[in-house]
């Protein structure tokens, strides 16, 4: 089915698209002298044709199927282990900045921490009495998550040693994670960063074992805390060494497979399936170990579900990133027309429609591009007002970071858009000649089909 031809701003018949009209998701087709043409986006996606998926969350019904577009910033943060997902700023309460790395605690942490305190206090009832057992239980939880923080800091500091920036550390109810700005560039560095956490946890367990030989063997507060922390770090270290994503051992396995196959995506999928196998094997092991302890079974089941889900997300992320090179600025470029800033908006729309362009670039008296007409602003302008509004008043000034090479593709394209969030960008050839306009909306829609 061929894409419909469009008018700009809803000036054409109802079934025709135009920037600023009322087709699905507000996606219209800007159709006088052009500043660039290239491949029209309609040859790639169609002006209002998206890949099959759920209907748009707003706007009028359409006979065309759509799918939700992923955000530029979200996808730019994707790693082989972490698929596209929206990261809420902060995502918790910041508690410290060791080595300049912000550490956040999830609000849900307090709920689980409270549960652990009361459960552990009950276990201490036979050896400690009164409020002492609650003080010990609170101290244990604090020291336990301090051990988790040290585990994550080891990942972060090794990553920093390899010149990989660390965005943050998040402590959540079942553990924590270190969020790096980029993926380790080599298998060895990936292995080293992943192995640092379990290695330090096992070192802490060994230190705890040594301390048990120093403190009194009687049922004292110190011996109780040392003994529990020794076992906690031992469990953290061994569990994270299991060779399946999303655990550290899975990342280490991925690095090894990556080294052999030289295909990081293949390595990710293999390590993720190993993680799924481990998750399935954990089910009978959990019942054998915990028997009739309902609460322990529930917690273990949550961990198993976490592993299965994390492995599945890693598989999706790997397949997603394999297709990223197909995301090319040239293929997504919109044909554009050039107008002076004083041109009435209605006239700019008419020229665009006449030239079958989908963007408008504002130029100065030397025909040098200085701004791009904002699609959202045009959509918000009633048709009856357009003859009286100058196009320049609805245009965004072209700052240097809004001018991008037309040859950008894949993650390089996403990184450029992430560094300078905007609705439209000017694409230029290596010679400096204008190629066309790239709309962030089109990139989002392209992701819906990747």
Which key features would you list for this structure?
13 helices, 2 domains, alpha/beta, 450 residues, four-stranded mixed β-sheet, CBS-domain, disordered N terminus, elongated
Describe this structure in words.
This protein has 13 helices and twelve strands. With 450 residues, the chain is of the alpha/beta class. It folds into two domains: 162 residues, CBS-domain (Roll); 231 residues, no CATH class. A five-stranded mixed beta sheet has the order 1-6-7-8-9. Strand 11 and strand 12 form a beta hairpin. Helix 4 packs antiparallel against helix 6.
Supply Rg: 28 Å
Q: What pattern of helices and strands is seen along the backbone?
A: EHEEHHEEHHHHHHEHEEHEEHEEH
Total number of strands: 12
Strand-pairing-aware structural class: alpha/beta
If helices are DSSP runs of H or I spanning 4 or more residues, what is the number of helices? 13
What does the overall shape look like?
A: elongated
| Order of strands across the main sheet | 1-6-7-8-9
Mean pLDDT: 76
Binned strand content: 5-15%
Can you summarize the main beta sheet? 5 strands, mixed
Question: Number of domains in the coordinates?
Answer: 2
Q: What kind of assembly state do the chains in view correspond to?
A: single chain
Q: What's the N-to-C terminus distance?
A: 20 Å
Helix content: 40-55%
Low-confidence stretches: 1-90
């Amino acid at each position: 089915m061929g894409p419909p031809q469009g008018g700009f701003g809803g000036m054409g018949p109802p079934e025709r698209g135009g920037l600023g009209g009322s087709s699905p998701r507000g996606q219209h087709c800007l159709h006088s002298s052009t500043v660039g043409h290239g491949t029209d986006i309609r040859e790639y996606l169609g002006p209002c044709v998206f890949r099959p998926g759920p209907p748009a969350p707003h706007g009028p019904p359409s006979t065309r199927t759509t799918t939700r577009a992923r955000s530029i910033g979200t996808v730019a943060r994707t790693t082989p282990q972490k698929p596209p997902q929206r990261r809420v700023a902060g995502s918790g309460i910041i508690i410290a900045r060791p080595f300049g790395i912000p550490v956040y605690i999830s609000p849900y942490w307090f709920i689980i921490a409270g549960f652990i305190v009361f459960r552990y206090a009950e276990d201490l009832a036979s050896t400690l009495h009164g409020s002492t057992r609650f003080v010990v239980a609170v101290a244990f939880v604090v020291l336990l998550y301090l051990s988790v923080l040290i585990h994550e800091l080891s990942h972060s500091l090794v990553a920093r040693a390899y010149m990989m920036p660390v965005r943050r550390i998040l402590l959540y109810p079942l553990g924590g994670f270190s969020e790096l700005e980029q993926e380790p560039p080599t298998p060895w560095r990936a292995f080293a960063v992943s192995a640092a956490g379990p290695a330090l946890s096992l070192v802490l367990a060994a230190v705890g074992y040594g301390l048990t030989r120093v403190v009194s063997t009687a049922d004292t507060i110190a011996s109780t805390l040392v003994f529990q922390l020794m076992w906690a770090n031992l469990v953290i270290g061994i569990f994270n060494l299991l060779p399946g994503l999303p655990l550290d051992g899975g990342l280490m396995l991925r690095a090894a497979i990556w080294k052999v196959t030289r295909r990081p995506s293949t390595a990710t999928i293999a390590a993720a399936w190993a993680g799924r196998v481990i998750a399935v094997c954990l089910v009978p092991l959990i019942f054998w170990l915990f028997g009739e302890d309902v609460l322990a079974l529930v917690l273990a089941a949550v961990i198993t579900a976490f592993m299965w889900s994390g492995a599945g997300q890693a598989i999706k992320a790997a397949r997603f990133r394999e297709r990223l090179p197909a995301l090319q600025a040239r293929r997504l470029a919109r044909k554009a027309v050039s107008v002076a800033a004083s041109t009435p908006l209605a006239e700019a729309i008419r020229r665009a429609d006449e030239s079958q362009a989908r963007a408008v670039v504002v130029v100065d008296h030397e025909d040098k591009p200085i701004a791009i007409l904002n699609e959202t602003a045009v959509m918000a302008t009633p048709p009856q007002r357009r003859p009286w509004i100058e196009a320049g008043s609805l245009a965004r000034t072209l700052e240097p970071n809004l001018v991008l090479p037309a040859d950008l593709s894949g993650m390089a394209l996403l990184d450029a858009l992430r560094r300078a969030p905007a609705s439209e960008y000017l694409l230029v050839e290596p010679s400096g000649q204008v190629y066309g306009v790239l709309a962030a909306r089109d990139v989002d829609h392209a992701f819906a089909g990747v």
